[in-house]
Amino acid sequence: xMSHYCSQLFFILLLSIFVGLCxxxxxxxxxxxxxxxxxxxxxxxxxxxxxxYVTVNKESGRALFYWLTEAPASRAPRLRPLVLxxxxxxxxxxxxxxxxxxxxxxxxxxxxxxxxxxxxxxNKLANVLFIDSPAGVGFSYTNKSSDLYTMGDQRxxxxxxxxxxxxxxxxxQYKHREFYIAGESYxxxxxxxxxxxxxxxxxxxxxxxxxxKGFMVGNAVTDxxxxxxxxxxxxxxxxxxxxxxxxxxxxxxxxxxxQHPTVQxxxxxxxxxxxxxxxxxYSIYTQPCNNTAxxxxxxxxxxxxxxxxxxxxxxxxxxxxxxxxxxxxxLHANVTGIPYSWKSCSDIVxxxxxxxxxxxxxxxxxxxxxxxxxxxxxxxxxAVVPVTATRYSIDSLKLPxxxxxxxxxxxxxxxxxxxxxxxxxxxxITGAGHEVPLHKPRQAFILFRSFLENKNMPx
Length: 459
Ligand SMILES: *[C@@H]1O[C@H](CO)[C@@H](O)[C@H](O)[C@H]1NC(C)=O
Ligand SMILES: *[C@@H]1O[C@H](CO)[C@@H](O)[C@H](O)[C@H]1NC(C)=O
Ligand SMILES: *[C@@H]1O[C@H](CO)[C@@H](O)[C@H](O)[C@H]1NC(C)=O
Fold this sequence. Notes:
Layout: H1 2-24, H2 26-33, E1 49-57, E2 62-69, E3 82-86, H3 95-102, E4 106-108, E5 115-117, E6 127-131, E7 141-142, H4 153-170, E8 178-184, H5 187-202, E9 211-218, H6 224-237, H7 243-252, H8 263-276, H9 314-322, H10 325-330, H11 347-351, H12 361-369, E10 373-379, H13 387-395, E11 401-410, E12 413-421, E13 424-429, H14 436-439, H15 441-453
Parallel strand pairs: 3-6, 3-8, 8-9, 9-10, 10-13
Antiparallel strand pairs: 1-2, 2-6, 2-7, 4-5, 11-12, 12-13
Bound molecules: 2-acetamido-2-deoxy-beta-D-glucopyranose (3 copies).
One 2-acetamido-2-deoxy-beta-D-glucopyranose (NAG) binds near residues 287 and 290.
């Protein structure tokens, strides 16, 4: 009797050690991050989702929030690549933009409570990982509040790299899997910078854990000199500014940095913005969202003009949705009680941005030489990082052309244009603004498929 009781106790003890070990293990963390269901989501979506925090700096207490949306079980997620998606700003949330209005599986309804499916979600083709980067953006946080005022490119890249290393420990099934990085706008810095870190730290390692294959950026801040030349030209050729302001911009912003412009350049930009009036610069032929509550005057709103399939005020719905306590609970987000509310962009992180190199082109050169797959795309109705800016930047790389500028085909119509260079593919999406997958979801899906399959845009 006694011994039976003892062995039972012993068994329970063993079991609890086992359970304890399991919960403390990376796999246990992964299980804990599994999302059962998001409030308001459609039933039986057929794919798995995970979200949670990965600590990237113990001393300061910085943790990055991620959301993984796997490919549907019916589409063999284990055979599909992993793609990390980043939005820019700097200071904007990949959860609020990329996941909720661009490439993610769900869109948020105007009630800010319920979700509906995005038929062109990129997780149909790959396992898509969103991270809010850097700390201080979206649900990512730092326990050292002064960090928010000193964020810059370098720390962002280092933290994102640390995130990846730790994340792959939690998700060992993704080790050695084909891996890509993609992003938009100021992620035109984050993506190549993170790509370079991964590439350099993989060097000399056979069969690396982070099996990095390439990157893709859209309407990407690339090279401040060429970006400025191309942006001012776009404003002028699209009739958005006067001749005199065009002349003034070209002189005042000649050697400028886009993150830290000179006083003269700022003054010229101020005049240009007044001349542009109340347009949506991110999508010049559509009306801005009428959001009086927004601090940013018409900076991030959209309105259907050309494509009627999207809602101009979508980021407001994200503000409602992600501030709901039950949504945060379901996402395992904000577990430490972040002392401010969720915002699609952090004004503090964005305004106090520190280091921002003038050009990403040396990194392009290095990674092109390394033979990585590199695609650059541009929605051609964006006046913030316009197609002309991207073309000047890419042209200055002086890459040999393999296939010259040609219209690509979307359902018998021109979807945009493409040029294939040795080491880089350039694609434009016609009629799309800054957030290409928001404005032109089907065209963006074709682009993503072509990128993954390493095929030229369909002719
Ligand atoms: C931040 O502080 C909270 C509260 O002390 C703590 O629970 C959390 O683990 C800290 N975060 C990091 C990343 O160290
Ligand atoms: C903006 O709001 C005003 C007042 O609510 C309304 O009259 C106007 O039609 C709105 N404009 C757009 C573009 O939504
Ligand atoms: C985090 O939760 C607290 C309540 O505990 C809330 O006041 C705050 O707005 C939330 N912040 C974010 C970024 O979700």
